[in-house]
## 1
Amino acid sequence: MLADIIKPQGAPADSSSTEGYWTWVQNPDTGAFQEVWETDDPNTPGTEGDVRTIKCRAKAAMTGSIKAAEQFGAQYLNDEWVKLDMPYNADVTLRDRVTNIRTLSGQVLWSEEESSGNPPTTFEVFRVSPEIDGFGNLIGKIALIKRAVVQ
């Protein structure tokens, strides 16, 4: 399987970069707050975020009951969770979004059926954990991702 990782606007090539810092900026159109990367060098122009494709194995994270996934109340909640198994060198952080989870032949596995054109579902990264073998070696990463409220 393949998945596209959407890096935030202006993110450095390596998320462990020390040549800048993350800051919150309010979008003038939507009013939403977004994290953007600010470089320490004022002469460096801002760069757009980019999309990186990684190899992965995606599996729906099933809850114990449908009641836990779908909740009625003051606000209707219908959470969809996916577990991604990735190579150890995949650069995925909590600031990223995941979309276009597909087979190697290009068939999209999660899509928005109620939207025009069935675009791929976008997920927010909830947690990233290392996967360790029995000898203490890092063999991969596991990411738990949740369907984003705004598609």
## 2
Amino acid sequence: MNYVFKIVDIIVFDVHRSVRPLLDPSLVQPQFQFLVDPAKYIKQHQQDAPFVLGEFTVESLATKRLALNYFWQRCASISHGAAPDLWKLQIPFICQTSKVKVEFSAGLAKTNVLIFPSIYLSALGWSTSLHLRIFGALSPNDLIGVVGHLRNDPAFTVAGVAKRTLSDSFIALSDVVKRNLYVAANPLYDRVTTPRHSVISIAKYDGAPAAFDAAVMQASDRAEIHSILHGRSLTLAQLTENELGNCFLQTQYAAYDFALTYFELGSLLWMQSPRQKGKRNSLWCLPSNLAALSMYLLGLNGFWKITELQATATQTIKDLREAIRFTINQLGDAYSNKFCRAFLRHHNGLSKIA
């Protein structure tokens, strides 16, 4: 492919689910008791400005910044009964901490990376997220290498310590969660249900629009696009195997706008029409919406799976599972994005819940 990628967004996150604090709220620190109390959870979400708790600055859905995220808006509009219920929906709180500074080296000359760590906290557990915005002049092979470098190599500096991995970054952020959230930080309190998941968006590039269609795009070019998401070069034989085996989900927005999803890896989003139409805002908004959606749905699925044997352990667990089923059934109508509906329909776990 004859392209030069100028700006690329990569949002990578994990998902931790935690059941024990719901069974025994005394495990949770007093200032975070709102996470295990439905009435307090809803009240805390009514805060219209960021607030400080422990080592975190916390934002609720009511803050202006979060109100700009269209996915959270639409998700929060789902009514459980007479009105939306943010406890039943498990809309998370977004947290930042100054205790862990994370940096990433792309390993390429004249390439700059901004990185924004966040933690998404709810009664179900938390997710640690890194949003990397990469500026440079990257060839497709360069970008394939950067994604592989991000996933596999000690390319991070975490809290001043160099040669750390992506996993080290996630662990450092999760350690802040545990020491603030729990009375005693017990590793048995949480389970990692999604070790890592990425949303990659090509936000600015030089090159002609490319329709991702086997009828018009060469197999070598399709293989390169898949390779970006995998972070390694796929052979034509591997591409053919993936295409014939229905190993990925393709969401087609328009002729030049598409997303590729491997549920075990993440999604690659390439929206080319907005550049042609001068609607660049969608290039920035859609990736954050799809990352929020993916994180949210994988979190609901993870909680559902680990509570299968505890479905009737307490009324709280039973009620949350019933709420999750209802939410999953309603979300495709509340947020009618093609990606959302396809994710719900084709994800093995979520399709069974519905």
